[in-house]
Amino acid sequence: MTASQAAQADNGDWLVGNPTGLQLASALWIGSVGLLILGLQPVLLGALYAEGHVTGDELALVATAEMIAIAIGSAIVAMLLPARNMRWKSAALLVLLALANFWTAYAGSANALIGARTLAGLAEGGLVAVATELIARSRRAERIGGYFVTLQTLAQCALALILALYAVPRAGSAGGFIALGIVCLLSLAVAWTVPDDYADLPKEEQFANVATVPAITALLSIFCYFMFFGAVWAFLEPIGAQFGIDGRTVGLMVSASLAAQVIGAMTATVFEARIDYRFAITVIGMVAAISSALLASGPGLSVFWVVALVMGFILLFIVPYQIRLAITADETRTAALLVPAAQLFGLAIGPIAASLLIDGANFRSVPEFAAATALASVLLLGVFVLVARRHGKA
Question: Phi/psi of residue 193, each to 5°?
Answer without folding.
Answer: -115, 5
